Amino acid sequence: MKKVKAEKLTTLQTVGVLTCAILASGLLSLPRTAVEESRTADAWISVLIGGAIAFVAGWIMAKMSQKYPNMTFYQYVQKITGKAVGKVIGLLIVVYFIALAGYETRSVEEITSFFLLEGTPAWAISAPFIWVSLYLCMGGIMAIGRMCQIILPISAFIFVLICLLSLNVFELNHLRPVLAEGVMPVFKALKSTTPTFTGSECLLIITCFMEKPEKATKVVAWGTGIATLFYVTTVFLCIGVFTVEGVVTRTWPFIDLARCFEVDFLVLERFESLLLSIWIMQIFATFSIALYIASVGISQILNVSYSKTLFILIPLIYVLSQIPTNLNEVFSFGGMVGNGAIVLFGILPLPLLLISRWRGGNQ
Prior knowledge:
Blueprint: H1 11-22, H2 26-38, H3 43-66, H4 73-81, H5 83-116, H6 122-138, H7 141-166, H8 184-188, H9 190-193, H10 203-206, H11 216-248, H12 253-259, H13 272-302, H14 306-321, H15 327-347, H16 349-358
Subcellular location: Membrane
Family: Belongs to the amino acid-polyamine-organocation (APC) superfamily. Spore germination protein (SGP) (TC 2.A.3.9) family.
Keywords: Germination, Membrane, Transmembrane, Transmembrane helix, Transport
């Protein structure tokens, strides 16, 4: 089995990686997808429950990875289920991360071409995005960890600033009365809110790179907690500003939220361009994490060079990102990726953890 280069992430860096893995393009469209399903102002409750579900799933994955602190999931799953089944499961995980990387690439194309660089060819947007990520991934998980440690505070600052400024146009009555139509609409929206929290699955791979893997469960708590706060706030504010009917008519509600106010006393009067520039970095982080994990998987399962795998995956991811022909198909593609994550990481880890305990853990 091919060894992974020994690199260690601090707990803070691991929290940054996990949070960046969860926060991506979903934040920009989540208010619409959540409200479309619930058709009530209580969609933010669905997001809160989705965050709790993500925490439980992440906790299970963290506990399983802690039993094999010196191995990635691709390595220890073969000890749990046997080599043949383990490699099949590992390849399914690789396919998921390749699909996730393709979706994030296409999301960047759509957002950038519509809001920032209108008329720019798609390849001219995605090529620098992909190649810079390739360069970053060549540095390994430590380079990605340091990047996330830098990006996350910047993203959080801009996010909080926009949320505070949007309070000038926020109307609390748009969210009242709470649970007026009962709890069923809240649970109905879970099928669109829960996939948004995919990202904690990266712990299956990066736990073995932590300086203190025993703190993996705390990382799950902080990472999913921060992401849940971001998502709940986004949905809450968008409904409060645009109403339920207004949110469902907007493709990217949070971007429209950043466009609905002007501030004369600040250097920037309009914030959507700043938000998009910052959030593209956030999507870049998610893409890089997915590319790294997919490359590590192929390297360890097929016993090939990690660097060569990176170069092989790049054109595959780009071709995959170009399959959707329009924005609706892009959102459908994202839904398929999210549903795949629920199957792979919402259902699979618990049986594997139970089998691992039954077989006596690390062998």
